Amino acid sequence: MKFSAVNHLVKSSICRWRRALVIGVASTVLCASPALYADFSRLGQLESKGFSISAEARLLDADTGSNALLGSLNPDRQLSPASVTKAYLSAAALNRFGPQHRFTSQLVSTGNVENGVLRGDLVFEGGGDPGLTTEDLWRLVQRLQLAGVREVDGALIVSQWRFGPVECITTDRCNARTRVTNAYSAPLTSAGVNFGSWCANIAPAAAAGEPARVGLCDSQAPLVAIDNQVITRPANSGTDISAERITDERGDVLRLTGQISTNASARDVYRGAGDAAEKTAQVLLSMLNQAGVSVRDPWRVSSTQPPSSAQRLAAVDSKPLQELLLRTMNYSNNYMADVLALNLVETPQAQLRQAGQAIEAYAQSLSGHGPLTLHSGSGLTTDNRTSAHGVNVMLEDMFHQSALFPSFVASFQSPANGVMRFIRRGSPTFQNNVMLKTGTLNQPFAVRAVAGYFRTSQGRWGVFSVLVNGSGSTPYLSWPEVLDPLSLDLDAMILAN
């Protein structure tokens, strides 16, 4: 460790000890000097390992708008922010729609209802709701029944005219068109349900040696083929399940392998569908059938907007935007982020680059932001580029918007209580005085990014952003290698101010 870093650590430790013993003004005086040593000296040691860093931390003053630089490392360097991109998305969406905005999905038709029969096609018009669930679809079906529809003399059409199918721009999503072992690579559409993923529930059989019991979370009907190779094992023998969605001539197939103990709880496994709009059509048709609403013709998917003469038969609203952002940011949900970003595009059949440009346009309206390139709203690509200074400009602007800031900051995680376990580290000062969003990518090179807000020991607000990028020749970068030194650097800044 460099001498400056050691000196910094010693002075910060003395400051903490003095604050514990001294009350009042004397405490402030004794602890003023560590501000000279509150910087990114620990984090900066990653540069010697070949990693590129852009970092900046500033104090904010809500009354005057002034700020004071606490530390920086190449603050204007353009690097990949990974999922810190979602903070840009959240800010842009709140500025565009407002915290209470809801996305509406509806069933419409140009036909008339006569004696319980809809004379025409029933169209599900996807509203771009990133959090649409089967529960919402059940509400739609119930409301359709309340509208008097018992039979459809036509077809069920799923309309994704707003956007979908969306062209894949990353290897993960492109490969996922034929097979996938995760849920985050689900295809994007304005008419998706359950985050564009299939869900299988896996439970142990009554006796060891028998195949596990498997069913779909979405429906009792066999909407997707399941290749169940999960074996039930004796109690306490462990549960290890692998799942893959494969698309072939049969359509989507869920291949499940592994084992589950007889005394294990049932497990839900999510895997992205081959086509999210087609999945919605299958699930919705199954629900209509279960509710006793018969549909004469086979379902189909359309990218055509229903005519203006179409009448609404049933509708369901999404959760308010502030609640959608809480889930998007806390769980770093790539499907939700990209769907929300696509909603920012005003023209039909939006694509991810257009969504990125819509967020860029928002950021360019912020004085002093600097360059920004976004190919998606989720950050699921290393082609996104920004700087630590640019991120801080955006964070500071949101801080000063009193009507939006509560909804915005609530979507960030506290290290002490965050849903992501890997951020639960560092001193109590770091864990309880910081709200952050992280970003992680491993291919084609490592990205570890963190940005957010902090409160100092004197109650002042601050912003910080850290972007760490590797290359094809740098080693794997673990989160402790970034968070441990960063927590110490921020800890010193917090205590010194």
From TrEMBL:
The scientific name of the source species is: Halomonas qaidamensis
* UniProtKB keywords: Carboxypeptidase, Hydrolase, Protease
Which EC main class describes this enzyme?
hydrolase
SUPFAM superfamilies associated with the record: beta-lactamase/transpeptidase-like
Look up the EC number in the record and give it: 3.4.16.4
Classification from the root reads: Bacteria, Pseudomonadati, Pseudomonadota, Gammaproteobacteria, Oceanospirillales
Q: Determine if Signal is one of this entry's keywords.
A: no
- Enumerate the NCBIfam families for this protein: PBP4
Q: Which residues form a coiled coil?
A: none
State the protein's name: D-alanyl-D-alanine carboxypeptidase/D-alanyl-D-alanine-endopeptidase
Among InterPro entries, the record links this protein to:
Beta-lactam/transpept-like (IPR012338), Peptidase_S13 (IPR000667)
Q: Report the family membership.
A: Belongs to the peptidase S13 family.
What is the superkingdom listed in this entry's lineage?
Answer: Bacteria
MF terms in GO? serine-type D-Ala-D-Ala carboxypeptidase activity
Question: Which gene specifies this protein's sequence?
Answer: dacB
